[in-house]
Write a structure and sequence with these properties.
105 residues; 6 helices; mainly alpha
């Protein structure tokens, strides 16, 4: 679920103790952004922003599958494409699986 190369690089950059704290922040932010995306009823700038933020957050921590879905959602939102809502249905499951797979430090 997590790109081990990214996680190992983060650990090398900040150390194990700080990385554990950073993953706690990731969990909180990714959850908040997922909730915001799930709550949108129309495709607007906020939808693009939420999707973009989730993509950036996920990729920064190596949560590649969550980041890829967020990128797809961002693209659909930018293009005002209703496929956003179909793809969004995948988000709760991928988010949950990602949260369970967070590395422990």
């Amino acid at each position: 679920m997590f790109n081990q190369k990214t996680v190992k690089q983060l650990e090398a950059d900040v150390g194990k103790d700080v990385l554990g704290q950073l993953f706690a922040v990731f969990k909180s932010e990714a959850t908040k952004l997922t909730e915001q995306i799930m709550a949108v009823a129309s495709l607007d700038n906020d939808t693009v922003r939420f999707s973009h933020s989730l993509k950036s957050c996920a990729r920064s921590y190596g949560a590649d599958e969550l980041g890829a879905l967020a990128e797809t959602l961002e693209t659909h939102a930018k293009n005002n494409d209703a496929a956003f809502f179909t793809e969004r249905a995948l988000l709760p499951e991928i988010h949950s699986a990602t949260m369970v797979a967070i590395p422990m430090f």
